[in-house]
């Protein structure tokens, strides 16, 4: 054994050190781009990456001594000043041009707050086919909607991503309840080894890395062997710790991960987190056998493809689960005989038990009523069944299901017989000690691992560390003494069956399940257009509506206006009252203001606490009156213990020939004049006759 030279305590200490590795603060970036760290006022350069001259044409020393505008250029700094004022916790993606050595260069920028710094990560933007990527995403929306099973969905996802990136291997990697991973879908080129159905231990993606995927869903490593580019100085002014780059894309690769990728034969890697109901479900993992540059726009498009696939997968699972419940309820329709009388326990099980075994994937089913039992299939003796039921009645709450896939490890082990390792037990809601029990045979499983699932301890720099395994050749182990695990939906179906066995309730629950399914379909259809918190339109849908209104205005010379507003001092409100209270304010305010609008007006969330109203067939004066009505209603809104809030509104009426961008920009400027003028007021954009409304 490789661990034989070290004690258990030493190995445990090495594991703990590995789990504490500060992967989010490496003090360096990958050479695919450069980094500039500014103070929050955008007035001083705090840190730059050592490759600033190659990307920006300015040396490190000059960059640290220069004004931010000299380093980043006017266009990008103005964008930062506009976007980051929202104080959003997420990163914002920007595109800007800057002159470098006499040549105009386009940059893709990711900007985010990190402590007392604003971090700007820059990559060259070479792709001029943004429309092609948008077409790809739109086509994917249609394609996903036509896929009717999860396996096909994941196979198509890996295939489309491989076609777009050229990576030799693209996989979907799913986590189990212990955070071990299994490759469940794969598209690969002939030169890449297959990892399909292979398992990976949880230590391959440790807890601190998994937490990063909750913060930042994309991890791109275009060149796994490239040396890291340090930040200068290593820490910001007056700070002891390196810069936190959790929200960025250029964060340097940890040495242990570089070694892991090298041992796997991977030269480039891209991972995109797949979340289900807020929990990390798995990863879309792309491997290039050699370094492979990846365009920032393409990377963003791949993230969009993955995020679109997840709701569809959840919907397909809900549909399959609903079908199981539907079948269980269908079986309950015949639980009465021709004369409408309930059959006895033995008659019920003998008549319908085979169907229930098939639906729930069980080997045996028993109905234990007091000292008697009725059953079909592979079962323990009646004496042992009754003993199990008695223990469950003494130790288990009747409204909670009890299940295991390894009976020998539970208090019920004395009554286990043969290879019946799995048990799902449900108390019938009759007030008596009656139990529905389903059993499963042992399922011996040979698991294929991508290399033996253990790290190798070694002494490096005088300390015991765990190094990544050097071989990823297939290694097998055999799992014994366990049945197939009981799925949540199977537990639920058994619970429903137990209720019907006890009281013969009607089939109304299936109607509720169908409604949930229809709701899931409606949610999927509105996903691209609705804000998840408030339920109003999101920015993408508002942009579409503004464009449509622009076309109608040009064609029919019909006036319209946009009202851009945000909540005054909302960051302070969140800091003092908490984000849950802030969310409550946003939801309540949107509901109130929505009711003040005409049917032809539309309200949407523009970003953070910033909202936009599109007022159709509305001239400048009408826009100002509408804005004042919204301002006054907000001021009068009583939020109970949360107090009151106010809003500042900028109004811009459309001018012939004007684009969406300039129209919204004028409204934005007007809104900031309202803030600068004291807040809780309305300001009209220039070139309008109406004047400011003041409370």
TrEMBL record:
Q: Where is this region: Disordered?
A: 675-695
Enzyme Commission identifier(s): 2.7.7.65
Q: Which residues form the signal peptide?
A: none
Under the heading CDD domains, the entry gives: GGDEF (cd01949)
| UniProt-recorded Gene Ontology molecular function terms | diguanylate cyclase activity; photoreceptor activity
Q: Which residues form the Phytochrome chromophore attachment site domain?
A: 149-308
Q: Which SUPFAM superfamilies match?
A: GAF domain-like, Nucleotide cyclase, PYP-like sensor domain (PAS domain)
- Cite the entry's keywords alphabetically: Chromophore, Photoreceptor protein, Receptor, Sensory transduction, Transferase
User: Can you supply one Gene Ontology CC term for this chain's record?
Assistant: plasma membrane
Catalytic activity field: 2 GTP = 3',3'-c-di-GMP + 2 diphosphate
**Biological process GO terms, please?**
cell adhesion involved in single-species biofilm formation; detection of visible light; negative regulation of bacterial-type flagellum-dependent cell motility; regulation of DNA-templated transcription
Pfam families xref list: GAF, GGDEF, PAS_2, PHY
Tell me where on the tree of life, at the top rank, the source sits: Bacteria
Q: Which cofactor does it need?
A: Mg(2+)
- The chain positions of domain GGDEF read 558-687
Where does the record place Basic and acidic residues bias? Answer: 675-684
- The protein's name is diguanylate cyclase
Q: Give the organism's phylogenetic lineage.
A: Bacteria, Pseudomonadati, Pseudomonadota, Gammaproteobacteria, Oceanospirillales
